[in-house]
Amino acid sequence: MFIKKYLIVFFWFSINFIVALLIFAKGLLLHRDILPNKADCSSDIFTNFYNAKKQNISDQLTMSHINEQFCFSSNFKVILIIIDALRYDFVEYNNYVNSSNALPFINKLTVIRDLLQNNVKNSRLFRFLSDPPTTTMQRIIGLTTGSLPTFIDIGSNFASSEINEDNILDLLNKRGKNTVFLGDDTWCKLYPNRFIRSFPFDSFNVWDLDTVDSGIQKYIYTEIKKNDWHLLIAHFLGVDHCGHRYGPYHYEMERKLTEMNDVLKRLVKEIQKQRNILLFVIGDHGMTSTGDHGGDTKNEVTTALFTYSPFYNFHSEFLKSVKIVNQVDLTPTLSSILGIPIPFSNVGSLILECIPATLLNSVSNITLIVWRNVEQITKYVKEYSSKNSQFKSTKRLDMILHSYTHLQQILLNINNNNISHFISEYEMYMNKVLHMCQEVWAQFDNIAISTGLFFMCLSLVLCYCIISRLTLYNFEKYISKRFFTVLRLNTCLAPVFLFLCSSLFLTNFEIISYIIVEISSTLLMIWLYKQLISDMIFNLNFNQFTPHLFIFIQCIFSFLGLFTNSFILEEPFVIIFLFLSSLWLIVIFRHEYRKCSNVNHILKNTKDYFRSVIIVSFGIRIALNFIKCREEQIRCKNTIDAKYETLICIFAIVLIVLCINSWQKVFRVDFTISSFLPNLCLTLISSYWICQTFLKNYLYIDKIPLMLLATFTNFVKMYVKFYVVAADYDVSWSYIILWGMSSIYWFYVTGHYASFSGIQWNSAFLIRKNIGSNIFVPGVLVLLNTFISYVIHALFLPLLLTTKLTLNYLQLVIPKPFKNVNQSQKIVYVNECEAFCHGSFILFLKYICFFGIRLLIVMLSSTILSRHLMMWKVFAPKFIFEGIAFIIITIPSSLIGFIFLFRIEKEVRKLFLIDKLEKYK
Amino acid sequence: MFKFNPKLYLYFIPTYFLVVLVCYFFIVLFGANLIENIEETFVLSCTLSSLLLIPLYFYCGVDALSLLILREKPSTLLHSSILYVCFSSVIGAWFGAFVIPLDWDRKWQIWPVPCVIGSLVGFTLGHTYSFFKVFACILQYEIKF
């Protein structure tokens, strides 16, 4: 019966951790669904428009006329110059600053000032507000799709970084127009094969200020003279890299900006020779005073948009007094100028001041251009909210649909007099939509983040209290009947509260449900904690010079490493370093052989001991060759070649045979299953590999052998772990730390790393090549393949506990309490059944607690570093991987291991009792 | 103690090579490349084994290594201070490894510079510590030479 109690408490703890984690993730990970829809010219935008207008329009807008107008056959060509990290105050000319003592970035782009002064009608400068996350990749997606990309854009393809969402480049291609690209190679990764000519340059080396820029300058002037393109994109990186390396206050910034000025000057000269070219100069994001970006402070968000058209005046009828536009507004503007449909998922509105006046020469033209933007965005909002509940939860959706009908009413009676009213209504409408989207997609939810962190800390503290205070004898005192009564009451009341809250005043159902679960269990926790705290003494006595202290320190080191991106990137190396240090510390400072008096005994023991530890360390080190390198790791090289795969397979098989042989020799296994199962597995594995070699077309998993090799080295390691573990039901923290470190290490060594590009999708096709609509089985396969190390470690965690029994059986070291036990007696723990159960419960809690602390550190690091350059590349994926490993893998696996252990224990006890009874007879 | 013992010097060279190899093995075990950067790793292992072996060997004699392995408590003050020096140089090298993964792109971050510097610093610190310890002992017991 008491097993059930343990299970409930264990389960309760897991729920607490999971809910805390989910609340946190909800706040930190901004996400958005990608819709597969594409815009085209002959859409129902036209019919809606026609229906709305047909009462009073028949003469000036015939169907064909409108149809043509909708994908205006425009002759304009656009040069889009993107200067990375171009903050607004880099551009705006400040007359009051003395040039001698000005900051390095002030008043350097003189060409823009000159153009603005001399060409009032055909040049414009705006403040250009980008949306967080202000990282280059997200901004590029934002500029081309007109949407607000979040960190996780949930689309159909996780595997490659290619953008499938509707975007300007695809629409241009569809209309037979061409794009030329120069600069940052991120573009070519996001949009492969979209450009007729592209000149990408490596963007990864942040310390290189000039390669990209000089590369662009080499080609751009000849490209401008060619006639086959409609959009030319040049993405300069020098300013951004200068910011990262030196910050904006360095004289290098002056040099880079002056260089940009020269480039622009020459470009303007070239453009003035040709007709119908428009120049757009924009920054994709700003930078902070230290040169970083990624967050949502004013300096990071505010950039500049400068437009210049040498021959055509810009539209000037509805000039706004405040010259601020959003970054997403560029997309519909560009598509209107270039004569393509507006991308389906665009949420920006037109910048009418940037559109040449020739396109807006009549009321009907203006209404058409504006109305197709309105129709497009309304269609998008409707489509998105039918697929996803994110919009519905804000309650703004109804308001937006209402103002849409209002706008339709105005459209019906449009004429020269009320056009300005229409435009202002249109702008209000677009703003509403954009605000709703920003609220849902682009803001960290600080309350959820801090709540998640708080609950996580609380759960961990309680977990630690329970681990350190709960013994077999006071179990009934703490986890009493009252505890369960309160727990039951909670479980009953939580849904009622949930229902009340969600129906009465709060709308965000998910968060509320999480919080209520958490609050109810927090009350329980506080109640339990009050009891525990009364006789709580923090006894961290490290007065002894023990290896445990060192392992503890190393564990802290490995946690601290999670605060820097380079340590996360190089984690396998860090972990193997710390792991082997800990292992060898235990070896060197082992206590047992100080107690022995006989020198020969010491020598024999030491020899055995050292041999096994050397074998283990060797195995672990060899496994390091199997790691996959991330693209960010510059010094790393993939050492294992596909050529050697057969060799490795053969080696692995030999190793496994040796292992199983020695295993069976030592244990003299005589149970049926355990004697033939390893051999059966071996046969199956070898035959699988043979099949794979000959039928390569049918079976396509090349990583499996590596995984199995790693797994089996793992077994060898477990075999040796027997030597290290202390003899008590209380497993020391050091071994838990070692075990946890090893599970992290083997995650890397099985060829994975914490990034979405590192997921091995091939494993999804293991069972069937044609997946179809059933995603569950492939999903489980991918998860298992990725986190197999965590699964194995959690399942085999009881090994740490049963080791001493095994040791006893192996007759190598006989722990004190078992010295008198008869050797033929295979099961010794039966008499101490309850102590055993309790010990294993504490063991599992400790394991969960270790990973909980690690996860808390990851959460903290991604909160603190949410403005870091590498946030979305390193820290956030790290958090997601750790979170998944914790929730989906470690907790359930250890639960299964726990239940499994109890089951074995129960059956064994039965056997033993029968045995005993027979003896009595 | 410092009298000339030809046997001691004869045995030194093979022992030294053995220790260099053992050091190399351990450095590779802890994550260095086996064959690439062989020169750099060799430099580190030579440094470490010099720092470890030379004081231990010439002060404590041939049995020094077995003394280490059997982990008997150091019997004399000299022994214990030499052991301190050994441990501190190893720990120094260990700490040196922590700056290698950082992406600062400094010249002193290149393998094995931080580890060599760390071991030297550890060696110096260990010597300083044992010097003060011996000094304190001298003061305490008023030992006269």
Would you summarize the structure shown here?
With 921 residues, chain A is mainly α. Chain A is built from 34 helices and ten strands.
Q: Helices, strands, pairings?
A:
The complex is a heterodimer of chains A (921) and B (145).
Chain A: H1 2-28, E1 31-33, H2 44-53, H3 63-70, E2 77-83, H4 88-91, H5 110-118, E3 123-129, H6 136-145, E4 152-154, H7 168-174, E5 179-184, H8 186-190, E6 197-201, H9 211-225, E7 231-236, H10 238-246, H11 251-273, E8 277-282, H12 298-301, E9 302-308, E10 324-326, H13 330-338, H14 363-387, H15 397-412, H16 419-441, H17 446-469, H18 475-478, H19 481-504, H20 509-534, H21 547-560, H22 565-569, H23 571-588, H24 592-595, H25 599-623, H26 645-667, H27 672-694, H28 704-724, H29 733-749, H30 776-786, H31 788-795, H32 799-810, H33 833-864, H34 871-920
Parallel strand pairs in A: 1-4, 2-7, 2-8, 3-10, 5-6, 5-7
Antiparallel strand pairs in A: 3-9, 8-9
Helix pairs in contact in A: 1-17, 1-20, 1-33, 1-34, 2-14, 9-11, 10-11, 14-15, 14-16, 15-16, 17-20, 17-33, 19-20, 21-23, 21-29, 23-25, 23-29, 25-28, 26-27, 26-28, 28-32, 29-31, 29-33, 31-34, 33-34
Chain B: H1 6-29, H2 38-60, H3 64-70, H4 77-96, H5 113-141
Helix pairs in contact in B: 1-2, 2-4, 2-5, 4-5
